[in-house]
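Propose amino acids for all 139 sites.
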């Protein structure tokens, strides 16, 4: 199964020094690398933008940008944005918040039958309302 990787995991893998990760984060980086090796990783433009935003050093920005060039953006179409709005409305009506990008990730993953790999707890709450699958499967 393909996996839409959220900014939190990309950031761990590409922006964080391995010396500054805890055991869980180290495991997540290893899982990310396995997914890359298996050619299962997917990305969308808004995640790419989030990842590159806030990088202060031009050299680091270029290094991350070059690493990301190995991954093509999944096309995002009107129905993805409409479904993201519905996801947002359903979650918010149940007291679950998230960003527009989070709900877009949910909509795209649901629509394409992909899992979501994230370290963001907001997605764990969304599972209660939306038919999303997280990676690794907690079951």
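Proposal:
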């Amino acid at each position: 199964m393909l996996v839409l990787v959220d900014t939190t995991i990309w950031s761990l893998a590409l922006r964080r020094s391995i010396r500054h990760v805890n055991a869980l984060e180290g495991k997540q980086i290893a899982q990310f690398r396995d997914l890359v090796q298996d050619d299962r990783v997917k990305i969308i433009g808004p995640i790419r933008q989030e990842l590159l935003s806030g990088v202060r050093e031009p050299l680091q920005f270029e290094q991350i940008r070059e690493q990301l060039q190995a991954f093509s953006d999944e096309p995002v179409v009107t129905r993805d944005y409409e479904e993201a709005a519905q996801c947002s409305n359903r979650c918010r009506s149940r007291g679950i918040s998230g960003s527009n990008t989070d709900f877009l990730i949910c909509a795209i993953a649901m629509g394409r039958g992909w899992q979501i790999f994230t370290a963001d707890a907001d997605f764990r709450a969304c599972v209660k309302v939306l038919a999303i699958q997280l990676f690794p499967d907690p079951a």
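The longest strand covers residues 3-5. The chain is about 55% helix and 10% strand.
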